[in-house]
Design brief:
This protein is mostly helical and about 70 residues long. The chain has 4 helices and no strands. The longest helix has 21 residues. About 0% of the residues are buried.
């Protein structure tokens, strides 16, 4: 499964259910990453944790809008 492209990343965090809930979204994705790691270990596969982090969590900060301090 490829890492989500820019358009899909923006779409994921612009969903009405996740709007304004970036921390909840991050926890949800982290829990899913943990499940994926457990699944891979149970299959006898040693997961590439950096690649999984990039796929599940690494793109989150790229979709974050400006902070209040940045708005002046």
């Amino acid at each position: 499964m490829p890492v989500p492209g820019r358009a899909r990343r923006l779409n994921c965090t612009s969903l009405p259910s996740s709007h304004g809930h970036a921390i909840a979204l991050a926890f949800y994705l982290a829990a899913n990453m943990r499940d994926a790691v457990d699944d891979l270990y149970s299959l006898g596969v040693r997961p590439d944790l950096r690649a999984l982090h990039a796929r599940f969590l690494g793109w989150l900060s790229l979709t974050r809008g400006p902070r209040r301090a940045d708005l002046g």
